[in-house]
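Q: For a teaching handout, I want to show students what a protein-ligand complex looks like in token form. Below are the inputs, and the small molecule is zinc ion. Please produce the holo structure.
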Amino acid sequence: MPVALFESPTLERRRYCECCGFPSLFVPDVEPRNRFEWDGSPDWENSGGTCDLCEWESRPLDARGNPVRAPRDDANDRLSLEQARANYARFEWHLRDALAAQQAEDEERVAGEWDDSEELTP
Ligand SMILES: [Zn+2]
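A: Here is the structure, written as tokens, with zinc ion included.
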């Protein structure tokens, strides 16, 4: 069975990471042989493999979007997927804290910009 596709009006099309479950792997369109042949089909074989978030290398896909069974011998430092998921669950709060801190900083900066504009108003 083909893997699930994440589609959004504002982001590029992606597939889901096997480890952390985020839609982090880019899926390009099939390259048309000429401009009349473009049909927007997903190019599964050239889809992204390594997750930017958790660094897990998901299995490559065949032309129909089915995971190819055998992973490379040296993929993912020989960790099992179960071990990698456990590691991700253990450390994911670091990511959440970093995102929350960034968001608070952005909101503070935006609020500061508002204060400045009020001072300049005659
Ligand atoms: Zn991931």
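A: Two things your students might notice: The first strand starts at residue 5 and ends at 6. Residues 17, 19-20, 22, 24, 51, 53-54, 56 surround zinc ion (CB under 6 Å).
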